[in-house]
Specification:
alpha/beta, Rossmann fold, membrane, Molybdenum Cofactor Biosythetic Enzyme, Chain A
Length: 382
């Protein structure tokens, strides 16, 4: 969807746009939302009654998903858990659908855990980013996760299978459902798409085993308590982990290995460049590092940049007299390789901000969960 159209629709459903046309749009969206709700109910009944079967793997399957459209922070959670399981000596693989990937086959091996076999265009930005950031973790793409999951288990020896964006993917049985909730926009406007941005009704939160609350540092303590209280209304037994997206380094677009740990941007006039689900959170992170964000360039989520766009961005940055252009790792993998050579001699640098998931909840609670998932007794007791 075009970014300007997406922003207009979001403004309408959030009540920021008024007038006759906005009311017509809301009526249409409400009608479509009711149809979507009916489809979800029918689908749920088909699975509950066994008319549609779910596939069970011999591996332990951990689903990471959300109930709102947009960027909640699923990818950092997947990276975090994959690293923790690898540290424990468990063979881990990640299943990703390969959104906006050129690859359209049944099983696409982005990485076999030894080398990356696809580029970002073929694999899709998220799958490629996962493969690049986790060199020892296989990443497999395909729309049918039961098929790619079986491949990960039988061909790649996966003991732990992480199902990325899997909360609505019921065709594969899972041993743990992790729901990622963005503290800056936890429940949207409480309405289903397209009248709102919910992918499922809030009552679906009852299916979650664990909630990962992300970006908790970007909301007040009172607001955080309100969110946790709301989660308990729908699911009183789920574990809740509070997390932040901690900035970890700045690097140039061309030099992946030369990451700068100095994140002080005090006094720097910065252009924020992003094509992600929640650009405001990224921009606030830059401001928290001391940057003065004088220009915000936003593209739609999963945007594939062209060389012309990057050069135009540099022209705009020069006109704005900014000191730095800063983007995300997700955006960096979506930029054409040849553009890196063309911008090396530019007076303004393009930097990439790296972030890591940091869990604030007591470590023993996380360790207890990981220990359960390691053992076969967890699977037997589910």
């Amino acid at each position: 969807m075009n970014r300007s159209l997406e922003e207009y629709l979001l403004a309408v459903i959030r009540g920021h746009k008024q007038g006759f046309i906005a009311r017509i749009v809301l009526i249409i969206c409400s009608f479509l939302s009711n149809i979507f709700k009916l489809i979800l109910k029918i689908r749920s009944k088909l699975y509950e009654s066994g008319i549609i079967d779910s596939t069970e793997l011999d591996s332990t399957v951990i689903s990471i998903g959300n109930i709102t459209a947009g960027g909640t922070g699923k990818t950092p959670v997947a990276q975090f858990l994959a690293c923790r399981f690898k540290e424990r000596g468990l063979q881990t693989a990640i299943l990703n659908r390969g959104y906006k990937a050129d690859f359209d086959g049944r099983i696409g091996v982005v990485s076999d855990g030894r080398r990356v076999k696809m580029d970002a265009t073929e694999a899709g930005d998220e799958a490629y980013l996962l493969a690049e950031s986790l060199p020892e973790v296989p990443v497999v793409i395909g729309s049918r996760r039961a098929v790619t999951g079986e491949y990960a288990h039988s061909e790649l020896g996966a003991e732990i299978v992480i199902l990325d964006d899997g909360f609505q993917h019921w065709s594969l049985e899972r041993d743990l459902d992790i729901v990622v909730v963005d503290a800056t926009n936890p429940f949207a406007n409480g309405r289903l798409m397209p009248r709102g941005t919910l992918r499922e009704p809030l009552t679906s939160l009852a299916r979650g085993d664990v909630f990962f609350l992300t970006k908790v540092d970007q909301v007040s303590k009172d607001r955080l308590e309100e969110i946790k209280s709301k989660l308990k209304e729908y699911n009183a037994t789920a574990l809740v982990f509070e997390t932040i997206h901690a900035p970890s380094y700045l690097r140039s677009l061309a030099e992946k290995e030369q990451a700068d740990k100095n994140l002080d941007l005090t006094g720097k006039q910065v252009m924020a460049l992003s094509g992600i689900g929640n650009p405001q959170s990224f921009e606030e992170t830059l401001e928290s590092l001391g940057a003065e964000v004088v220009k915000k360039v936003r593209f739609e989520d999963h945007h594939q940049y062209t060389e012309e766009e990057i050069l135009n961005i540099f022209s705009s940055a020069a006109q704005q007299e900014v000191d730095l252009i800063i983007t995300t790792e997700k955006d960096a993998v979506s930029m054409p390789p040849q553009v890196k050579e063309k911008i090396t001699n530019q007076e303004i640098e393009l930097k990439v901000l790296g972030i890591e998931l940091e869990v604030l909840t007591e470590e023993f609670e996380l360790e207890s969960l990981l220990l359960k998932l390691e053992g076969t007794e967890w699977k037997a007791n589910r």
